[in-house]
Write a structure and sequence with these properties.
30% of the residues lie in helices and 37% in strands. The chain is globular, with a radius of gyration of 14 Å. The two termini are 13 Å apart. By secondary structure, the chain is of the alpha+beta class. Strands 3-4-5 form a 3-stranded antiparallel beta sheet. It has a two-stranded antiparallel ribbon with strand order 1-2. The model has no long low-confidence stretch (mean pLDDT 87).
Length: 112
Amino acid sequence: MSDENVDVVRRGLFAWQSGAIREMDRLVAPDAEWRPSALSGSNREVYVGPEGFREWASEMISRHGELRNEIDEIRDLDDRVLVLGRVVERVEGKTRVDAQLAWLFELRDGRV
């Protein structure tokens, strides 16, 4: 099952990077909690389900900047998937964030 979990996370990362935000509806469970890092500048501590993820993504996109994740490594941890990489955000040509981050995804029944 863990190979399938890694595939779900990869598809989610690709959907995010390519702007296919609606793809996340199939990958994110209704009760999933997304806790953005303090670097995101979000006013909320947690977003719930696909709707919450779309809301967070909309906030990030509304900055009219460049936001990208650079993935260095994906580790299979059975029912969890650890992603190591970097987030880079540029707004109005200036770097707002450039930091190494880790994302931990817990999966059940093929969904985050």
